[in-house]
Amino acid sequence: MTTYQHILVPIDESPISYAAVEQALALAKSLNSQVTIMSVIAVDPFVGVDFYKVAPAITDYFMQAEKTAKERLEEIKQSFVRDNIEVDVKLIHGVSPSEGIIQIADEVSADLIIMGSHGRTGIKKMMLGSVAQNVLTQSPIPVLIVKI
């Protein structure tokens, strides 16, 4: 059996992220793995909006998103600390979620990614895309997808 020494767990605000965290906790504990939890502050959601008219709104959005992500990462980090699991946190900006996940996996030399998937299908998947699907197809390392 492959022993995973460094697990990457990308999270967002969804409940499915917390299910992935629970899987990562269990696996890291049983394999004595190091864990990195991460979030991506999404690429500009205001694409096509006149920047000069909405600059304060954009700044407020990104500041609030970063604050919320840092709080969520710290809260989740404590779950790993309580179980004596070596854990680090990463926050990345300016890239798509899937690009950020792949980038951080490479940066920390992760050998497994555990992430949640909303399980969208059909037209919803076509319209919204799928971060999990993108990571699955782009990642050079194994990806464990957790669904609830």
From TrEMBL:
It comes from Acinetobacter bouvetii DSM 14964 = CIP 107468. It comes from the Bacteria. InterPro entries: Rossmann-like_a/b/a_fold, Universal_stress_UspA, UspA. Pfam families: Usp. GO terms for cellular component: cytoplasm. CDD domains: USP-like. Signal peptide: none annotated. Residues 4-147 form the UspA domain. Belongs to the universal stress protein A family. It is found in: Cytoplasm. This is Universal stress protein. Keywords: Cytoplasm.
